[in-house]
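Ex. 9. Protein: Photosystem II stability/assembly factor-like uncharacterized protein.
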Amino acid sequence: MVSALYFVARSSVFKVQKTDSVWGLIEMRTAHEFYCLAVDPTRRERLYAGTFNDGLWISDDGGLTWEPAGKGIFHDRVLSVAVSPTEVINGYSVVWAGTEPSELFRSEDGGKTWIHFPKLLDLPSKPTWRFPPRPHTHHVRWIQPDLHDEQKIYVGIELGGVMKSEDKGIYWEDRKPGSQYDCHTLTMNRLAKGRIYEAAGGGFAESLDGGETWATFNDGLGSDTYLVDIAVDPANPDTMVASAAHGAYSAYDPQRASTVIVRRKNGKAWEVVTDGLPEREGSSIFSLISHESEPGIFYAVNNLGIFQSIDAGKSWKPLLKDWPKSLIKERVRWFVAV
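Predicted structure tokens for Photosystem II stability/assembly factor-like uncharacterized protein:
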């Protein structure tokens, strides 16, 4: 069962934990504004967090204190981090970090040293990669180690597409037709080998064959084709929820936000979910997660609260009675469960 949820906002890490059936919120202030977060499933108090200008940081006490990662990541903007769910070397889960501009790094010793994978930048599509708000650059937005094969890893470039390696990052295959190029989030499901789910600026895409072929499916989304996050029911690979908006302008800033959660089941059209969730106006984009220990359960967090669904995304309820007013105007980033 999930014992704790973590998310980041401003210069704080927030921990949501259940005590005697009541969920409570702990704010842990840091010296940095974190942009991404990952937890080591083999060491539940070990967190990795990336920053926009101050590199990667590591906590061994659940976010109370932080130390800089070891040298080897030669860009200060670390905008994605992932811990391998399958690969453990010398007692450490393998960690991946992605930067702006786009580079990929791997650590096999808990972040003390890092290996660089330069051939990611040798792909033919690389000259077309760009990030519209900063058009002179681009970044690794998401890293998805394969849940079934430790040799495989998928990387989402914003804006560039989904790239695949079948030898732990040494050589890479370029984006495939049918995938979305404005990649935001990738995920997988342990019950569906070779199935990859992508939430992107152009909607939803998926591959059923390990990234060889892709298909986009936006039926039911209407104008809400700007997808940012996606989560899949651990008990049913055909049930998923995603966070959606009309575009980037209305997705992130709470002052002008207008977003929804959408749900898809058994290959049918996407549907907007409203039961138990705030009105879309003023509601910034949700971060979404599920956990393999909790079939049929989803969690969502944004500027207006943290919510749980126990019926596979059909209805939601807030986990906390008192949501900090200080977060209502803040962008909430990343979301992990342990």
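Check your answer against this statement. The mean pLDDT is 97.
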